[in-house]
Amino acid sequence: MPRKDQAKVHGSFLLGMANTFYSISALSSCDVDSLIQNVSAEDWYPISYLNQLFEALRETEYYNPTLLHQAGQKFVLAWYENGGRNLGWGSIGQIKMQDNSQSLKLVFKDYDPERLFTRLLALDEEKGYAVLEVADMLPPDFTRAIFYHGTFLWGDLLWLDLQTEILAQEQDYTHAIYTYHFKKQDQQYSNQNINEFIDQLCLSQPADISPEMAQTLAWKLKGMSAQYTLEKQINERSSEMLGKALTEQVRIRNHLEKANQIIRLQSMQDSLTGLYNKRYFDEAANDLWHCIMRQQEKITIYMIDVDFFKKYNDSYGHIKGDEALQIVANCIKQNFKRQEDIVARFGGEEFIVATTDATDQQINEQAGNLIDKVKEANIPHTASLVAKHVTITIGTASIIPSEKTKLQKLIKAADKALYVAKEQGRNRHLHSVN
Ligand SMILES: Nc1nc2c(ncn2[C@@H]2O[C@H](COP(=O)(O)OP(=O)(O)OP(=O)(O)O)[C@@H](O)[C@H]2O)c(=O)[nH]1
């Protein structure tokens, strides 16, 4: 008798595990047959050999299903799979066999008697055979693939045959009663007398399921199958709904983001000219003020006012007045293009710019250029008292910010310069000397 962990495997063998179910059940009985023809069940393989074999198998295009290693319930198996190759390992946990001093004991493990029907039809410890009946939802092809026409050593039990009685056929499952025939391993049994033994066994121990029992089982299994189908449907439906909900959530979020962006933009923009509004200017100029204070540079404020704009509105109408303001706003935008320049509509026909222009010359140039740009825009203004086109007046003031000074004071100084420039005749620029 071989040691339990070095048990000898007799005959051919093909084992499929649940996770390889698809590849095996996809084979027809005929395919399984031809595969088994080439199976060579071998003695125990040492693990080092197995490792070598694993490596070799990776290089091989085709190979046959072979039990590479088995110790008790644990096994390692290689098999051919649709032109590819596969290796499996696992254990048989459902039924555990124990060998207690030569006598056979069956221990049912991990069994839910409510779920499956199992019973020992026959057990002869002296002769060493057992017949086990199991009702399951495993399709016969799968079960046959596990035990197909081979002998399988299970503990010290040799599996001999499998008979199937179909109870019910569902869309996904065949509910069946499987009758497993085991015998205690004994070297004296050749393949031939094993077959004789099976014949005897089948004759003497037919699986007897009463019609009532068969009906109860079929009903139970149908219930399980229906529950499974329902769960599957619910899962599919809930994932579909979840998918839709997530898509909707993303859509709403994008929509909200866009809306927020618009609101943010609207809250800082003047709708007529597209320039920043006064509120934004106050915040941004304040930041610039503190930044410039740290760097001890100059900050300059430009106050820009359209001349005789009331007269313009009176002569050309409010809509034309709006258009004129847009053109002037555009000229200002074109004139102050540096990143740190803050250009805003201060209110009405008045605009404000904060820059870091440092020298009087730079300030004069910028203001002069802007006056020229507005002139070049050539917006007719026959009611103006200083030109035939729209003109602007600019007042500027600059300072190196400090804790003692205030931005508002600088704006006031620029506004004062604007006022003085207006007094001096408009269409000009005046820089505050303070
Ligand atoms: N079309 C139009 N007019 C505006 C807008 N905002 C303010 N105004 C007009 O701008 C004019 C400003 O008039 P005033 O403050 O007297 O200034 P002004 O006529 O330009 O005179 P000076 O600045 O002294 O040259 C008013 O008639 C306002 O109605 C606007 O958005 N669109």
From TrEMBL:
One of its GO terms (biological process) is negative regulation of bacterial-type flagellum-dependent cell motility. PANTHER family: DIGUANYLATE CYCLASE DGCM-RELATED, REGULATORY COMPONENTS OF SENSORY TRANSDUCTION SYSTEM. GO terms for cellular component: plasma membrane. Its cofactor is Mg(2+). PROSITE patterns: GGDEF (PS50887), PROKAR_LIPOPROTEIN (PS51257). GO terms for molecular function: diguanylate cyclase activity. Its EC number is 2.7.7.65. It catalyses: 2 GTP = 3',3'-c-di-GMP + 2 diphosphate. It is an enzyme of class 2 (transferase). It comes from the Bacteria. CDD domains: GGDEF. Residues 297-434 form the GGDEF domain. Coiled coil: none annotated. This is diguanylate cyclase.
